[in-house]
TrEMBL record:
Region Disordered, annotated ranges: 117-166, 774-796
Anaphase-promoting complex subunit 4 long domain location: 254-452
Keywords for this protein: Cell cycle, Cell division, Mitosis, Ubl conjugation pathway
Listed GO biological process terms: anaphase-promoting complex-dependent catabolic process; cell division; protein K11-linked ubiquitination; regulation of mitotic metaphase/anaphase transition
Domain Anaphase-promoting complex subunit 4-like WD40: 20-111
Annotated protein name in UniProt: Anaphase-promoting complex subunit 4
UniProt biased composition (Low complexity): 127-142
Family: Belongs to the APC4 family.
Source organism superkingdom: Eukaryota
Record-linked InterPro entries: APC4, Apc4-like_WD40_dom, APC4_C, APC4_long_dom, APC4_metazoa, WD40/YVTN_repeat-like_dom_sf, WD40_repeat_dom_sf
Organism: Branchiostoma belcheri (Amphioxus)
Domain Anaphase-promoting complex subunit 4 C-terminal half WD40: 617-770
Length: 796
């Protein structure tokens, strides 16, 4: 069956590709190139989107890993800079960014399965038909019943923007609403740390190098978690000496017992969902604050400068009064001094006053709407979810023992309350400022018309006693001169809103006077209320932005406990030396011959399989290593066997060569391996082939020696040097394959669920796409038509 797969496309790429990953649920191929970009293409090679490198990424800090969430809705991208970015499948929108301390070296995304049925119930929603026992231990997500929906931030005023805003669900910004099973993004870095991120978001476990010396100083080549969450396997590259330019490397397989993840799967799913909700709200609040900063205008600073020059004019004439005295005289007696008259008519001007009033009204109104419609709703939602987290932390047997600390969550809840107090304070400042500004500007406008000899409209000239009180209050609070610093001009207390949007770690220049607030006075005088944990603290001299940063830090601190506690619970069971990598001058291997581990559930006991190509020169054999996922004792038992692909493929094909080189290996699906082969002699034509895993049933696995200590002793030999392992030729069991004419050796990516494949060649700049579920018809080198492609997509 030489043409078992249909070639769909053959394309030239503008940039060398470093990583490929098929979407598990859709005919989409993600590719990362050497410039740090990520492309997403359909099967007909239509470009869906392009994701640019993260801001601040320098040249050479490109993509080091790709992993799809099991439902295919989110793509995880790891970078040399240490960032892990989650991107939406529909558009190049960054949903979440996690920053690690060291460069990412590998990543994989594993979905947890139920012990018996292979499925997991929703982590937060309770099936009403479930048993009472199960419903008692599964918390309900009641946020939608008590909280108002978060509305999208204003982006524009077109009909399209409004329609998109109505369809957008802000609460699902992290794309978690469709998740009914716990899934974990496993990330390894260059120094040996392993991170477990629930739903790609919540750090639910971290293995630091100092906590497992088997990986100390080692680069993680691949890391995976079994679907029953019982064990974690990592392939680590150890450096033989401190001199990286001359040192060889030993590659080892290290296994950990992670039974705590399996026993606390439901609790971790709940914490992961809750973290996603909290992270969504914090991101929404940060975007709202950014919109508020954009809505604020600094036009009042211009008036502040003009008043400072007017004050200098008064000082130069040795007049024993201030600017506020000038305006107060005008208010009381209706007569302006020559200096004030010149300031109003020539410096401030009627046109400038109108522009100033309009700008302040628009700016303050927009900020007020953002606080009322967005920021306060988000603050209420944050308090709600932190209150639920506090309740979960008090359930020690379920969540407290996982590291969810009640005191830390209480501190985060308290900080969120302080943020709400500061937001209400800002609303009060805006309300008072707008009333005083409007009264003051209307009065000044009437004065300017009189001074210019123009008729004053009746609606402008009318001033009530309340309006006079607003003007007097404005003169007292806003036109009082600050004591200037040496070498700095005088400053006035005109603008009080912009100070709340200051990101710098500085005290508010004009904090609110708490002595005028009856509740504050009562609370400070009360012995029982002062310092009570039931009341939110008030950061009088902090800006709104500063209190938000304090809240964000407190929330992160409250949710970082489980990562450390769960990480310390992992027990390293041993390491198995696989092979040595010899440094050859400046040559660098673009793809290390280690296949990420995968679990197959074809029987009991369930096993984790690791495939390794240890012979970098001959590429003549594959080592298959297996061990059970449920490790009931401290003794780790690993078994191994050798596989090779002889010259004959299938049972009916004529023998074309004595043996095949194995260029690449990948899991096609749970029952099939995909192989990229090359004939050992003759035409040396590459071959894309599928090998049923039933072929492993005939292999006689032998027990392997596992080291329980580190550093590895010289007596523990590498796999390639051991004897006693049987060699099995599986070439005749390959029933589907295709020769790739006119192509030099490369790498491949396959997707068994969608029955698709891709092979890179030509220095990683040419690509062939295959339908792995159809035989070639006609000329194998000819692309299928657009109509055929449309029919193919519809049938799928």
């Amino acid at each position: 069956m030489q043409c078992s797969f249909r070639q769909l496309k053959e394309k030239s790429l503008s940039t060398e590709v470093t990583h490929m990953q098929w979407n598990p649920k859709m005919d989409l191929l993600a590719l990362a190139n050497t410039q740090g970009e990520v492309w997403l293409h359909r099967l007909n090679w239509q470009r869906v989107w392009t994701l640019s490198p993260p801001a601040g990424a320098s040249e050479g800090q490109g993509v080091t890993g790709l992993a799809w969430r099991p439902d295919g809705q989110v793509l995880g991208v790891g970078y040399q800079s240490g960032q892990v970015v989650l991107c939406d499948v529909e558009k190049a929108e960054v949903l979440h960014t996690s920053t690690l301390a060291h460069p990412v070296s590998c990543m994989t995304w594993q979905e947890a399965e139920d012990k018996h049925s292979g499925v997991t119930a929703s982590p937060v929603h309770v099936d009403q038909s479930s048993s009472p026992a199960s419903s008692q231990t599964t918390p309900q997500d009641t946020a939608a019943e008590f909280l108002p929906r978060l509305t999208p931030l204003p982006k524009g005023y077109s009909a399209t923007d409004k329609a998109n805003s109505e369809e957008e669900v802000v609460e699902d910004n992290k794309r978690l609403s469709s998740q009914t099973r716990l899934n974990i993004l496993v990330v390894g870095d260059e120094v040996g740390s392993i991170y477990l991120l629930a739903y790609g978001l919540f750090s639910m476990g971290q293995l630091a190098p100092e906590e497992h010396p088997q990986a100390k100083g080692g680069r993680l080549l691949s890391v995976t978690l079994s679907s029953d969450l019982q064990c974690l396997s990592a392939v680590v590259q150890h450096q033989a000496s401190a001199d990286t330019s001359q040192s060889d490397h030993t590659v080892c397989l290290t296994t950990y017992n992670t039974a705590l993840l399996a026993t606390r799967k439901q609790e971790l799913a709940t914490l992961g969902m809750k973290y996603g909700q909290v992270a969504t709200i914090l991101g929404y609040m940060e975007n709202t604050l950014r919109s508020m900063s954009e809505a604020w205008e600094d036009i009042l600073l211009e008036m502040d400068n003009k008043l400072a020059k007017f004050a200098e004019t008064i000082d130069s004439k040795d007049l024993d009064w201030q600017v506020s005295d000038e305006f107060l005289q005008l208010l009381m007696w209706g007569k302006a001094s020559p200096e004030l008259q010149s300031f109003l008519l020539n410096t401030l001007t009627e046109k400038g006053l109108k522009k100033l009033g309009l700008s302040i009204d628009n700016s303050y109104s927009n900020i007020e709407k953002l606080v009322l419609n967005h920021l306060q709703r988000a603050g209420q939602a944050l308090l709600f979810h932190l209150s639920e987290l506090k309740g979960l932390s008090l359930w020690y047997d379920k969540y407290g023992m996982l590291g969810l600390n009640t005191q830390a969550v209480q501190e985060a809840w308290s900080c969120a309350g302080s943020f709400m107090l500061k937001a209400n304070e800002l609303l009060q400042v805006i309300d008072n400022s707008m009333k005083n500004f409007k009264a003051f500007f209307r009065w000044v406008y009437a004065v300017m018309l009189r001074l210019a000899g123009e008729q004053v409209p009746s609606e402008v000239s009318k001033m009530s006693q309340k309006d006079l009180a607003f003007v007097a209050e404005f003169l007292q609070e806003n036109l009082t001169e600050e004591t200037p610093s040496p070498g700095r001009p005088k400053r006035f207390n005109l603008e009080k809103v912009g100070q709340y949007l200051n990101k710098k770690d500085e005290d508010l220049p004009f904090p609110q006077d708490l002595s005028k607030i009856p509740w504050e006075t009562f609370m400070q005088s009360s012995t029982y209320l002062k310092g009570s944990e039931l009341l939110f603290p008030h950061h009088q001299k902090k800006s709104l932005y500063q209190v938000f940063n304090i809240t964000k830090t407190a929330v992160e601190r409250a949710l970082e406990g489980p990562a450390a506690v769960i990480g310390r619970s992992f027990n390293c069971l041993g390491s198995l030396p696989l092979y040595s990598m010899v440094k050859r001058g400046d040559s660098q291997h673009k793809r290390l011959p280690v296949l990420p581990m995968s679990q197959f559930s074809g029987g009991e006991p369930r096993h984790v399989f690791t495939l390794v190509i240890p012979d970098q020169d001959t590429l003549s054999r594959i080592l298959v290593i297996r061990h059970p996922t449920q490790l009931h004792s401290e003794l780790l038992v690993m078994e191994g066997a050798w596989l090779k692909v002889g010259g004959q493929l299938g049972e009916q094909e004529a023998k074309r060569c004595s043996s095949h080189k194995i260029l690449d290996v990948s899991y096609y699906d749970e029952g099939t391996l995909a192989l990229l082969l090359q004939e050992g002699e003759g035409e040396c034509c590459p071959v894309l082939a599928l090998l049923p895993l039933m072929a492993l049933d005939d292999c006689g696995f032998a027990v392997l020696e596992v080291s329980q200590t580190f550093p590895l002793t010289a007596t523990v030999a590498s796999i390639g040097d051991r004897v006693g392992l049987c060699m099995y030729d599986v070439g005749h069991q390959i029933t589907q394959y295709r020769y790739l004419e006119n192509a030099d050796p490369g790498v491949m990516a396959v997707g068994g669920e969608r029955k698709v494949g891709a092979v890179l060649y030509g220095h990683q700049r040419r690509l062939r796409l295959f339908d792995m579920n159809a035989e070639e018809e006609g000329d194998s080198d000819e692309d299928i038509s657009d109509n055929d492609m449309q029919d193919l997509n519809e049938t799928r």
